[in-house]
Amino acid sequence: MQGGSSGPCVFSAPLGQKSIIDEVKAMVCERIRDWINEMTPASSTYVTLPKKIVYYRDGVSESMYANVKSTELKAIRNAFSTVAIQLSGNKGIDQKIKPYKPEIIAIICGKRHSVRFYPADRSQSDRYDNCRPGTTVDDVVTSPYYQDFYLQSHTALKGTARPAHYFVIANDSNESVDDLRTMTHEICHTYVRAPVSAFYASPAYYADRLCECGRCYLRNFLAAPRGSPARDGFERFRDNIEQQLRCIREGKFDIDARPKLQALVEKAEVEKAEVEKAEVEKAEVEKAEVEKAEVEKAEVEKAEVEKAEVEKAEVEKKCGEYVMNEVKKEFERYRSGGNPWHPNVAKTMFWM
């Protein structure tokens, strides 16, 4: 935007009811090329590129601010890299600004809110008791975590003036709220359709007007009455596309498509049956192996039990023989001494 007039515009129709702009990268690349053609002299060795870019965004709710920052700002930065790569084959970029990463200031304009401000001193109000144009509120009712401010840049023609809410989602140059407010308020005075300042930033205002203009062109195709040439042409095109997709789905483009498809289906069924049969046989083999292993385990356990019983009997037998041998040795020892009786017997009453 230069000289108080609106700059060139780019229009893109999104698919479906989406708040995020899908073609931001291509649109920004086009705008940067126009900037180069306008600002770079023909005799210059290097191209002239913008060092700062201010991006005013409108038409998104507060829940979409994070998506705008992660999607659209990323696409804008990718557009800078794309333009720099494309310029490498023609005029070069000044070494002072390599790599090309301009500073971005992204501000979202919020209009749908119920916040209103009134002057504390009536002498400071306008004829409708509204705040004067340029009134800014950047604390108390604003976010404690982000940069945002309310700016009433216009004079209400009737009723209570509604300020615009500006939410800063990117500030690479670390501009203060006062500088952003001053810049935004001055930009509001560049709207060419009004001799006074606009309700909100002129770039966003121009974007609204462009969307309304584009909607008028689309209405001839999407909302035209039945029987009109535009509506008939659109419906014929839509029907042709649907018919082509239906033919592709049903395989009518190839005469032999259905027999081939049937053969493929039969082959797949045979392969499936073979796989299922192999799985059943494998399961039966595994089951037989498990049963065999269980039988072998039972036999081993039985053999171990029998062996343990035999070993126990053998131990008892050996222990008995050992005890008897020791008793015999004890008896022989006492008998050789002349008294065959054991001392334990002498301690008891013994009657013959």
From TrEMBL:
Q: Record's Pfam families?
A: Piwi (PF02171)
Q: Which PANTHER family match?
A: EUKARYOTIC TRANSLATION INITIATION FACTOR 2C
| Protein name in UniProt | Piwi domain-containing protein
Q: Which organism is it from?
A: Pseudopithomyces chartarum
Supply the InterPro entries for this chain. Piwi (IPR003165), RNaseH-like_sf (IPR012337), RNaseH_sf (IPR036397)
Per UniProt, residues of the Piwi domain are 50-210
- Which keywords does this chain's UniProt record carry? Coiled coil
Q: Name one GO molecular function term.
A: nucleic acid binding
- Coiled-coil stretches are 258-318
